[in-house]
Amino acid sequence: MYTVSTVHSKGGCGKSTVAINIARALQLRSLDVAMLDTDKQSTAQNWRASGSEELLPVFGVEKPSNLESTAEGLADAFDVAVIDGGAHLQEMHAAIIKQSDLVLIPIQPSPGDIWPTETIVDLIKARQQVAGGPEAAFVINRRKQGTRLGKATEEALRQFDMPVWDGTADRVAYAEALGNGISVVESSNNKAAAEVEAITDNVIETLSTNGRR
Ligand SMILES: Nc1ncnc2c1ncn2[C@@H]1O[C@H](COP(=O)(O)OP(=O)(O)OP(=O)(O)O)[C@@H](O)[C@H]1O
Ligand SMILES: [Mg+2]
């Protein structure tokens, strides 16, 4: 089983949105996918409850010390686990990074989101030094159309020496999909669907290039 996660200490940057949308997109590509929801707000579990029967299962994990055993319990039954990381949970972040083959860091194109990024990058790099992984990438989330903020953010993130993926634009379709228990890839918004398919392509390519740790 491959494990992909979304983490950032900044609240509201798109961790749940990115995690949920790629998890469902992976499931629609015929993979067996489970989600692990580490957020006390239970966004992924609420999304699951709003969706149809066939939607992937979402398991709540409250304590960092339970993450590894929960993931191990799923390893034989699932191809991919997607972990939705909550905000401001340093200990949980360390556990998620340890468990992941690929960590995605959603970033909104605003200086207030870039400044606190160093802490999470340091945690990931420290783990990469001792364990040789996980892979990691920034996903620019909620890019405002018609502004240069996305490009400026991309340039500012280069200092961290990690890949920067295009991610999502600011679209109502994302909030609607969350409430309807679907991924935007199933919505009528083709642009949002193409964004999530592109992130999903990058996830699969990164995992298949680097393998399991
Ligand atoms: N690309 C987007 N376009 C429009 N709205 C978005 C987009 N991405 C996220 N949102 C909205 O922004 C809000 C915060 O997103 P989300 O819940 O994914 O962030 P989060 O990082 O998981 O937050 P938290 O730290 O509270 O767990 C939600 O209301 C979500 O619907
Ligand atoms: Mg969340």
UniProtKB/TrEMBL annotation:
InterPro entries xrefs: CobQ/CobB/MinD/ParA_Nub-bd_dom (IPR002586), DNA_Partitioning_ATPase (IPR050678), McdA (IPR048089), P-loop_NTPase (IPR027417)
All copies of domain CobQ/CobB/MinD/ParA nucleotide binding, residue ranges: 7-182
Transmembrane segments: none
UniProt-listed SUPFAM superfamilies: P-loop containing nucleoside triphosphate hydrolases
Lineage top rank: taxon: Bacteria
Name of the protein in question: Chromosome partitioning protein
Species assigned in the record: Salinibacter ruber
